[in-house]
Amino acid sequence: MHDKQKCFNREFRKFGVGWKGISIATIMIALLGTAPRVHAFANYVYHERTSNVPGCGTDPYLDVASPSPSQAVNLRWKVEYQFSTDHTVVYYTTDGSRPAGSFGVGSGSTRIAQGTYLCTFSDGKQHLVDVVGGIIPAQPAGTTVKYIFGAWSSGGGPEIFGNSGTCLDCGDFEVSTRATLFQYSVTAPLSITCPPDLTNVPTDPGQCYATGVSLGTPVASETGPGTSVINNAPSQFPKGETMVTWTATGTGGNQATCTQKVVVKDLEAPVISSIPANITVSCPSEVPAANDAAVVATDNCGGTLTVTHDNDVISSAVCQNRYTITRTYHVADSSGNSSSASQTIVVNDTIKPVVVAGTIAVCYPSQSEAEAAALAATTATDNCSGTPLKTVATTGSPCNAIISVTATDACGNSDTVVYHAQINNQSPVISSVSAAVGGLDAKNCAVNIQQGMVNISVQANHICNLVDGHPSVTLANGLEMASADFVNESPLGTFNYTWPITPATANGTWTATINAADQCQTATSNFTLCVNRAQVTGLVQSQGFSGGNRVVTFAATGGVSNKIWNLNLAFVGEMANYVLTDVPSGTTGISAKTVWSLREKLPVTFDLNGQATANFISDGTAGWSDATDHYLRGGDFSGNNIINFQDYSVLGNNFFSFNTIADITGDGQVDYDDYFILVLNWLTAGDPQ
To answer: How far apart are CA 558 and CA 451, in angstroms?
Structure first.
């Protein structure tokens, strides 16, 4: 038999009632019957503080461990069947004394709270237990309530006092006659006041949480031994709002809570590690656009960072293309913290404009015209936008003006090109011209010029240097062209030239043009020279002449006209050279005669250069009568071109005299030498002219 069964049997026998004498049906009838409630065989009254009862809900057997002054306390206890009982109460005191009483009557300061049956249940071991509830009214704060349970039968059964336990099998039955004292304290309502909310707690450096947060001290309404105040604060407060619950536990186990708000804010700005590099450019067009994507930054809380930039700030502006740009980038995190870093862009145009010189004329009548031409011919471009400003300046002399065109950009960078020109509106002046041949004026055909040298002098005044340093003298005769050779300038302003007339020089009228030209102006003067370079040259042999000067008369025939030359020739013995110039065009014969000789005539043929040769000499091979001899035979003193009695008479009349008319030999005396020559040529006639 179960131990608890044995316990019940003993008790039943004690009171003269056998277990077997009462059926389960009888027990259930008594259990479920109406008031007055009668239970047979009550064994225990006990108080369980934690257990719930099947079929009677989940209310605790002591609902408030430390009630407040306004709280009544609900108690529940159990009555195990033993003998007939229909009353159960709670004996309690509020003055600290031990409660005492019997059969529903308290002794001393003991008070009574009536019990009320709530339900019955079976413990599964053939025992039935009643659950009874009672209420102790609310007591003032600071009151210690002590209580015990009692149960008895109105039929005179003994009163059983409460025990504590968690099971029916409690060992010796007699222990149930000893009441167990229970108590609780009435306290003022436990309260706790949290420290003030923390609404601006910064995160730890470089972290997205806060540690070591000083929460402050809460204020609890109950302190001292047996009380505690705790919170559920984390060791790391994340960014944002965290609710900290503070819990105060009083001496009776009652608790109070409050919440404290802790707001952790990210007050740490992002760290910018890289922005677009500082640069220097030449022109505004080279300034790069802002590049937010090039900004590199990190944040203690991570997340998306927002990159923005300010408008460019321009400073230190010197000129249009020389200044400093400060471009500030901002990086903001989701908490609104931001960092800034600035990029410096220096715009510094130090590049000269590109200046290209064009072409201008050599001469201008005025400086303004020359400068305008130089400006128009010069192009200038700049590496930056805008057109460089062109300015012009002239230095040097008017005859060698240096015209400088300078292009300057907006920042003063400049480059220059140079032009050279002559600024002159005055022509040289040719004041006089002379041309002479052999001391004779040949200008404007005053004489015909044969072979020889023409000397030309030009007097010219000039402001600027003449081209080549002197005037030019050019000569033209139809298609024939020639130039006079510059000799010197002597005296100053007189320019001297020579023009040789050679066998190659064309006959006719040559127009001489004098150009006195500087770079800008030209003065021109013209005159003519007449050239007849046709000439006959040769030897003249005077029969028996001993040497010295003798006049020889030459005649040209067969041409456009006849011409006579009386030449005083210097003879060496019988021989002399002669030159006949300005021979009429078409001449076919040349004759020679002296006052002592017969006339000798020779045919002439001119070459392409107008040159011919006629030698009036003896070939020396056949004596004096040889037909090939063309020397001038002596003895014609009368001039009739035949040697006869007239000549003999002249000789005789002057014999042994010093009259040169009959002096054939030229020795100064008319003598036998002259006579013998006359005799050798007796009755010989000369050629016709």
So the answer is: 22
Q: Say how many C-beta atoms besides its own lie within 10 A of residue 73's C-beta.
A: 23
Q: For 498-536, how does the pLDDT look when each residue is reduced to its tens digit (9 = 90+)?
A: 999 887 888 888 999 999 998 888 899 999 998 887 889
The per-residue pLDDT of the chain, averaged, comes to 85
355 within 8 A of 415, measured Cβ to Cβ: yes
SS3 label, residue 558: coil
- The torsion defined by the Cα of 91, 94, 98 and 103, in degrees rounded to 10, comes to -20
Distances (CA, A) of 217 to 192, 214, 230, 254, 263: 11, 9, 11, 20, 17
Q: Which backbone phi and psi does 608 adopt, to 5 degrees?
A: -65, -20
Provide the 8-state DSSP code for 597.
Answer: B
pLDDT (mean) for 294-316: 96
Instruction: Give yes or no for a contact between 331 and 270, defined as CB atoms under 8 angstroms apart.
Output: yes
What distances in angstroms separate CA 533 from CA 579, 581, 681, one per listed residue?
11, 7, 37
Cβ atoms of 502 and 491 closer than 8 Å? no
How far from the centroid of its chain's Cα atoms is residue 168's Cα?
Answer: 101
Residue 648, H or E segment: helix 645-653
Q: Residue 237 pairs with which residues in a beta bridge?
A: 210
Query: What would the DSSP string read from start to end of 122-155?
Result: E-SSS-EEEEEEEEEPP--TTPEEEEEEEEE-TT
The residues pairing with 162 across neighbouring beta strands, listed in sequence order, are 45
The answer to whether 279 and 288 are in contact (CB under 8 A) is yes
For residue 329, the tally of other CB atoms under 10 A from its CB is 22
**Quick one: CA dihedral 169, 171, 172, 178, positive or negative?**
negative
* Cβ atoms 72, 136 nearer than 8 A: yes
Beta bridge partners of 565: 554
The arithmetic mean of pLDDT across residues 330-343, rounded, is 96
Give the span between the Cα atoms of 428 and 417, in whole angstroms: 31
